[in-house]
Amino acid sequence: MRKLLLALFATPLFSVAQTSTYFPFPVDSATWSVEYWDVTPPFGYDCWNTWHYGINGDTMIGSNTYHKIYQTNVQYNVLIDTIYNSSNAVYVSAFREDSMKRIWAIGSWDTIERLLYDFSVNVGDTVYVDYFWQSAVVDSIDSVLINNSYRKTILLHDQNWSTHEWIEGIGSMDGLLSWQMVSSFSERLICHSQHDQLYYSVYTYCHCDHNLNGVAEQEEEHLNIYPSPSNGGFEVDNVVGAMRLEMFDASGRLVKQQEIADHLYVDCAQLPDGIYFIRLIGEDDRRIVLKWIKSSQ
Predict the structure, then answer these.
(1) How far is 106 from 114, CA to CA, in rounded Å?
(2) What is the reported pTM?
(3) Which structural domains are found in the chain, ordered by start?
(4) pLDDT tens digits, 129-148
(5) Whole-number Å distance between alpha carbons of 283 and 116
(6) % helix, strand, coil for the chain, step of 5
(7) Quick one: CA dihedral 119, 120, 121, 127, positive or negative?
(8) Residues 6 or more apart from 55 whose CB is under 8 A from it?
(9) Cβ–Cβ < 8 Å for 176, 164
(10) Could you give the 3-state DSSP secondary structure of residue 259?
(11) Average pLDDT over every residue of 185-193
């Protein structure tokens, strides 16, 4: 079993003095999970898809080297992949970073190189990024603490006064490739990992199991945690024999452990809202990981 990863999440600060070190865009061993949701009445907020992106190999286009981005996904809440799975991925784009801290991309359907991000901008600059389909103005530049390092954050608004936020070396909070956004559907970045370490995560009802890599050995679909989400606790159905339960929060910290049998209620009233991973260890050392969501709403 791989070593449990302890990820430090993004902590906003209000100073850019610590951002003298530039963090380039990752070129390998990086994944992004993006939720794709409908905001049209009568549905309101509804998670329809989770797209998982990963970098896999390079390609030459013209005289430039590009890094290839592949995608796997969950469709209409039907679980396909809970994390990026290279064996079940399709090529969607290629990108490169130039010497001026600009990220350029060519979609798999396209032949034109388009500007995806520009991390060289200053407050007040106007920038044309193709996925806005219009110009955008830089409102502010701030910093965020990620894994003990400060990274630049850029806040922009487009001509419709929609706001967009970029994090240096990670991308847009609207999603990695936001040019795929259509109709009433919206996107949001919910997880980002580099070299198997979780750098960014937000609470969500969509599928975002990056940290599962550091916990799981196997999953079994016949086991079921219910209710989820729940504001109190849960039961594990179809447990055969005695098992030890270990419960981890989204950062990989062990928050609870106990012995269980079938239908034993696990009280989690004292835990904060969030996503938790439940590892069950059987008498034969069989290990199973399930996900549970604590929500007071």
Answers:
(1) 6
(2) 0.63
(3) 11-213 (no CATH), 217-294 (2.60.40.3080)
(4) 765 467 889 999 998 888 77
(5) 51
(6) 5, 50, 45
(7) negative
(8) 26, 27, 28, 29, 30, 31, 67, 68, 69, 70
(9) no
(10) strand
(11) 78
